[in-house]
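Example record

The entry below shows one chain as it appears in the dataset: sequence first, then structure tokens.
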Amino acid sequence: MLRTLIGAGLILGLLTGVAAAQLPMPSLSLGGDHKRKLSPEEQAKQDAVDKAYNSAMQKIPDKKSTDPWGNIRQASPGTSQNSGGK
């Protein structure tokens, strides 16, 4: 009887812990919904930083796709060195 009560209490405790983890925490906000308004000076500085970032990103050349198996494959995949089944 005691073993059954302990097991039921353990299961009940685990279920309430899982259910409590799904509830939103009112004191903890991880979202960015509560951002403060920037002053005009701060906004201008942020715009300058964004503009510098975008111009730096445009200066980076496009990365060419590399084929790691290129030197292992044959020169052209359509040709083979087989004689065609002599």
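Notes for this example: The first helix runs from residue 2 to 21. The chain has two helices and no strands.
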